């Protein structure tokens, strides 16, 4: 339904609008990171913020990830609410100590007396031939570490509401945006991610997966850029008379176990689609949840489609061979429906 | 120690208070060293006994904590390393709750979830970390927060000389200078990173020289002298409060126990420890106070008795405190709203 108030935003716009509205509302919110100022964030997540809030609140940092991400720990302990961007999730190796030994653990180690309301945002995903050091997803790695909330939006509406929730959360939140959903001028983007976004502020609670399409024969559980791909695959299956339910998890921590189980108990068949590596990751975790809570309801073994356990190759042909495509998702659905 | 020819009464009282805090720290560390062995023998077991886990004591390093922290206010932030007791005591962390935490008890600062390397106290803005070099970035962030809030508070990051070879040290100096953050980096040079002597780990004689590379003042203070440290710290902290940015202080000090309790210290040269003991900073400060008639034998005895009582009260409190309930292990991963 198109109305006069209908306003389609790219996901990048939706994120920067969310941050801007929260900075307006709460003077404790600061933004820093590499190229977040004049450039507006390499992926557009901080566009317009410098002009609006000035260099005291929107700060470009040197390429010193341990220092500027670690600084968020001390600043949040003293009352600020930093949003810190580190461009690519692939770059997080240099700062892991500050994240998994301190940011994630201080609340626990302090017996609940220290709080770190920090949003760490970063870009994930491949599909544009940038090779093994610029194409990973890795949200499963961080979801594995206790103390971090993990957000992976699949469209602009969710991106805004989840970002506002992330900023207002008193815990460290890692916010992963997929490069192929942002609507950047220089990057092919799935137009299913560019949706109506209300101008007013709104939140989307964490831990509530969203049924983006209801169906009765198969449940597809997925996240991020695999959501629009799964939807396109589901369309193909619909034409073949198979009804697919697509569940967008939206957050990995907290994980909406209830809706996963509810859907699988209804459809009796589950496919998990993940752009992260296959072994020891999201797809294995969700398969375990289903096995624990809905095994007796399954009419077929759980199927998983994820990145095979290889670094992401550069060549277009090789990369397309490893990242789940609409066709591969559709094939998995057909196998499962047999 | 040749600071004042004719100090006034207030100054004398401050000196005596510094001395008292140093004595409190020393008594505490000596008692923890004794208690730490309880229940660990005959076969030394690190997890057994009254105090489980590793134990890193700071006896001999009291001048660094007292000399710097005497210039701080409660709201000023301190990040400390894995050898944190002297800083915590000087900062005013509640000794009973701190001891209970070290004993792993429910009444501890973190209800037994932190331990001796992970003391957290929001009341005194004190935190520490068991990871070498990890306290620098959070101190820069705390300083940034103070600046943004328009407060004249400062943050201090304490770390050993081994930590000055971590990337976090270099990144944080640059970032702090760039942001003119009110933060003081204090390197405790106790000559050894566990067993590796400084000359084998650091290509220059003094880490304080590294400050130049990042455009901030660097000061080296030799002699483990509490008054010299205090003087340098006062200047650095005052600069920071006035918005003039960060300072790096490197302080020569001595570690009278090993890196950890149970350390055989095979790496020390013959006689090295004895030489350090000869230069005990508390003994020297006491002599200085006597010499200038700032302290009498009687007053000293009163101080000694008082710190003994204070330490024993904290230890009794910890001993009598309950262990946490097992199910508490599952709480505090996240803030529950």
Oligomer: heterodimer
In round numbers, the mean pLDDT of chain B is: 96
Instruction: List SSEs of chain B in N-to-C order.
Output: HHEHHEEHEHEEEHHEHEHHH
Secondary structure: helix percent of chain A: 25-40%
Strand-residue proportion of chain A: 15-25%
Can you give a write-up of this model?
The complex is a heterodimer of chains A (338) and B (337). Chain A is α/β, with parallel strands linked by helices. Chain A is built from twelve helices and 14 strands. In chain A, the strands form three sheets. Chain A has a seven-stranded mixed β-sheet with strand order 3-2-4-5-7-6-12, sandwiched between helices. A five-stranded mixed β-sheet of chain A has the order 9-11-10-13-14, with helices on both faces. A two-stranded antiparallel ribbon of chain A has the order 1-8. In chain A, helix 1 packs parallel to helix 7, helix 3 packs parallel to helix 4 and helix 9 crosses helix 10 (282-294). The model of chain A has no long low-confidence stretch (mean pLDDT 97). Chain B is an alpha/beta fold. Chain B is 42% helix and 11% strand. Chain B contains twelve helices and nine strands. In chain B, the strands form two sheets. Chain B has a seven-stranded mixed β-sheet with strand order 2-3-1-4-5-9-8, with helices on both faces. A two-stranded antiparallel ribbon of chain B has the order 6-7. In chain B, helix 1 (9-36) crosses helix 12 (297-320) and helix 2 (62-69) packs parallel to helix 9 (226-241). The N and C termini of chain B lie far apart (53 Å). The mean pLDDT of chain B is 96.
Which tags fit this structure?
heterodimer, A: 338 residues, alpha/beta, 7-stranded mixed β-sheet, 5-stranded mixed β-sheet, 12 helices, 14 strands, 19% strand, globular, B: 337 residues, two-stranded antiparallel sheet, 9 strands
